[in-house]
Structures are given as C-alpha cells and as structure tokens.
Amino acid sequence: MIYRFKKILQSSVFAGLICLGGQVMAEDSDGNFIPNPATVSKISQSLSKNVEESAGLLSAWENTDVHLYEVLAETYNNNPTLLARRAEFMAVKEQLPQAQSGFKPNVNGNASITYAKTKTEGENFFGTEGGRTAKNIELSLEQPLFKGGSTLANIKGANAVIAAQRALTYSNEQNVMLEAVTAYVDVMLSQASLELTQNNMSLIELELRQSQARFDVGELTRTDVAQAKARLALAESNLTQAKGDLNSNIALYQEITGVAPDMDSMALPISVLELPESKEEAMRLAELQNLSVILAENTEIAAQYDIDSVFGELLPQLSATSSLGRDYTPYSFVDEQSSLSVGVKATLPLYQSGATRSRLRQAKQVANQRFLEVHEVKNEARREAATNYALWLTAKAEIKSRKAQVEAATVAREGVQYEAEFGERTTLDTLDANQELLNAQLDLIKSKRNEVVTRFSLAKTLGILTPQNLDLYEDR
Predict the structure, then answer these.
(1) % of the chain residues with pLDDT over 70
(2) Residues 136-157: pLDDT tens digits?
(3) Rounded CA separation 259/262 (Å)
(4) What is the per-residue pLDDT across 86-135, written as a single tens digit (0 to 9) for each?
(5) Number of Cα atoms under 13 Å in the Cβ half of residue 245
(6) pLDDT digit string (tens) for 155-180?
(7) CA distances (Å), origin 425, targets 34, 149, 377, 410
(8) CB 151, CB 433: distance < 8 Å
(9) Torsion sign (Cα): 441, 442, 443, 448
(10) Could you count the other beta carbons within 10 Å of the beta carbon of residue 36?
(11) Helix, strand or coil for residue 118?
C-alpha cells in the first residue's frame, strides 16, 4: 500500500504543473509548454518527504509493542484515584476488628481522691476543725457471654462488606485501566489524524498551484481553481480541529497516567488477554466474574446479616462481671477496705418503644432490595458482555474492510491522477480522489483504535482487566 501511495504522489509530478517556487513551465522550440526541470526536482523532493512521513505513520499502526502495558503499570501505581480507593478499602477493612470486639471483654479502671474538711462548734464557743483525704481505686471487667447472636452476625456481615468493597476497588482499577487504554489509543489516533491531514493539505496546496498554473496558460477555468481553494480551506479547518483534538487527548492522557505521552514509543498493544470464543461463553463468564455482580452479591449477603444483627437485640443479653476495689479513708472506723465481686448479669429486652422492631422490618426490606438488585446487575452484565463481544467482532471485521477500502481508494486515486494528465478528469475529480483516500486511511486507523477499546472493554465486563492478567507486575 505504501508503494502504491508513493507511486500516486510521484505521478502528480507529470500530471501537475505545480509551483514550489520558481518557474512552473518552460517553452520549447516549437512554442509548446513543458514542465520546468528545476521545478520538477523540487516537486519530487516534496512528494518523497510526504511519502516517508505517511509510511512512518502507517507503520505505527501495523506494529505491536508492550509500551502500553508499561504505561498501565505506572498508572496502576501512581494514579491518585486508585490510591484514594485503596485507602478507602483499608478503612473499610477496620469494620472486621470492630465487629470482633463484641466477643472481647471490657476492662475499666477508676481512681478517685477526695479531701473533706469539717468544723464543729461547742457551747463554750470553742470548736474543732479538721480534714481528711479519702482514696479509692477500682478495676472492673465485663465479659459478654451471649448477645443474641448479634456479634457473630456483625462479623459475617463485616466480611461481606469487605468483600464488596474489594470488588468495588478492583472495579475502580479496571475503570482507570480502560480509561488509560482509551486515552492511549486516542492520542495515537489524534496524532495520526493530524499527520494525515497535514500531508493531505500539502497535496491540496500542490494541486492548487498546479490548477493555478494550468489556469494561467488557459488549460483550466477559474472554477477549477476555486474548487481547489475551497478544498484547501477545508483542509486547513480540519488541520486546526486535528490539532485541538490532539492537545485535548494529550491533556486527558496526562491526567489519567500522570506522564506525558511518548509519541515515538506508542504502538498498538500486543494481546495478552484470553477472551472467550463465543458470545454465550462471554455472557456466562460475565455473570460469574463481573465485578459489579460480585459487589451486588456481597452487598446482599451483608444485608442478610444485618437482619440477624438487629434481631439479636430482641433476645436476652448475658455477660459476666467482676470488680476489684480498695478504699483508704483515714480517721474513720475502718481506715482501709478491699472489695472483690464476681457475678453474672442478664438483660431481657421487654419493650424499646418499637424502634428495634422497626429497624428489623427496615433491614428485611433492604435485604429484599439487595436480592432484586443482584438479578438486575446480572442481567445488565450479560447484556453488556453480549454487546461488547459483538462490538469487538465488528471492529475486527471492520479492519479487514477498511484495509480493502484503502487499497481500492489508492488504486482509484492513481487512476484518476493518470486520467487527469490527459484531461479526462477534472480538478474536482482529483480532489475527491485525494479526499476519499484520506478518509479511507482515517477510517482504517479508527477501526484499529475501536478494536483495542472494545477488546479491553470486553475484558472489563468479564472482570479480567486486572494487573495480574495484564502482567503489570512482571519486569519487562
């Protein structure tokens, strides 16, 4: 395809009387106009440069490399969103030791010191005055024996909440990984669009100069020149848009990955993900592995244990108590006194103004809601898997079609350019052929970009867009 593209560009040397500075045409001894050899040399150099740039651009979309995974590894370790979500997960994990504390004793120590001053008056106007300091030390212990099963329910519920939060953290990681992949190939696409648009504009400029030169010698009309000028204005507008898109995508890429894109190293990623071979298999895996499904399932489990926890508050509470104390009170009947007590305390909830039973009914409704949400999320995961699998297959098939389109557009442009040399094609025909080839090349690049995005989107739906599956831990 590169060879044909080069042939097309070089054919315009003889088809076009193009001006790159200097005299466009020369007159022979018979009075006929022929291309100026010096100008033709400049034209060939300019066209060869465009060919080399286009060849380098297309090769970037033919090769595969591990560079993307190196970028993903940096993103995984340094993205602030992921760091925040991991900190949140560590905070949620503390719910487990908090729940386990329900099985452990409470030990308290108390100490006090009191000074008392007394004054008495007698009948002979003489009284007594004095003071004393009392000290007290006490150590108390309470060991829960039975709390209606609430403690065990709280522990199991905490484990379910942690599992749900873990799934949410992994889901956030997959979202960021997919965003990074999309930003990566979008930068590649924007850069390719910019370079193709620049090359196309250079060709249109040459076409305009050719048209102007042929108009000057009466071979073309003013309309032909106007058409070339209009197409050049469109190319300039497209170039401005392409520059804006590239800058925008670079900014998004830096926001997600934390680094500037290395344009020279960017290439399509090699395939390291094992994707299913059928839509049915994709739907089955999504129902089992999709992180939204895992999140919903564990949230529903936690809601069920919330019912047991609240119900336990309606049952008797039993605990063992013990206390050890020592009192020191000088000038009293007993200066020092020690005490030790051991007992069992039982509490039977009789009526709590209806609040506990209301919370119990509320917990049951929440559990029912979570149960229904599990089915909803599974249905959504199956649908998303089927959709992404179809999009992935479509993108792969589209690449083949787009390659055929580029080859056909290349041949067509070559033919139009050749026919234009003999006046069988108009300037507009040549411009249209150039534009169709440009559009075909852009569509091919977009289809390759879409294949990468849909491939990773399907992996995310299946729950396999993980650092382990992407080999982000491996030294490359």
Answers:
(1) 82
(2) 999 999 999 999 999 999 999 9
(3) 9
(4) 999 999 999 999 999 999 999 999 999 988 777 766 555 555 566 678 88
(5) 18
(6) 999 999 999 999 999 999 999 999 99
(7) 20, 89, 59, 16
(8) no
(9) positive
(10) 18
(11) strand
List beta partners, residue 135.
Answer: 113, 328
Rounded CA-CA distance 94/90 in Å is 7
335 DSSP 8-state letter: S
pLDDT at 212: 86
Helix intervals (H) in 79-149: 80-93, 95-100
Which run of H or E residues covers position 191? helix 150-216
At 136, which helix (H) or strand (E)? strand 127-146
Give the residue carrying structure tokens 């013990």.
322
* pTM passes above 0.70: yes
* Lookup: tokens for 151: 């403690």
Rounded mean pLDDT of the chain?
Answer: 84
How many residues are there in the chain? 476
Q: What are phi and psi of 248, to 5 degrees?
A: -65, -45
H helices within 61-149, ranges in order? 67-78, 80-93, 95-100
Spatial separation of the C-alpha atoms in residues 430 and 419, rounded to whole Å: 9
Amino acid (one-letter) located at 285: L
- Element spanning 319, H or E: strand 317-328
Alpha-carbon span 125 to 117, nearest angstrom: 19
| Amino acid residing at 344 | V
Residue 110 near residue 140 (C-beta atoms within 8 A): yes
Cβ atoms < 10 Å from Cβ of 413? 26
Say which DSSP state 266 is in: -
The answer to whether the CB of 278 falls within 8 A of the CB of 390 is no
Q: Express the helix, strand and coil content of the chain in percent, nearest 5 each.
A: 65, 15, 20
Task: Please state the domain extents for the chain.
Answer: 2-97+151-307+355-461, 105-146+315-347
Q: Does residue 388 register a pLDDT over 60?
A: yes
Domain 105-146+315-347 has CATH 3.40.50: no
What tokens does 63 get? 């090769």
Report residue 125 as tokens. 């106007």
Q: Which residues lie across from 34 on neighbouring strands?
A: 26
Same fold, 2-97+151-307+355-461 and 105-146+315-347: no
Please report the sign of the dihedral spanned by the C-alpha atoms of residue 451, residue 456, residue 458, residue 459. Answer: positive
Closest listed residue to residue 436, CA positions, set 406, 415, 400: 406
CATH class of 2-97+151-307+355-461: mainly alpha
The pLDDT, as a whole number, for residue 53 is 56
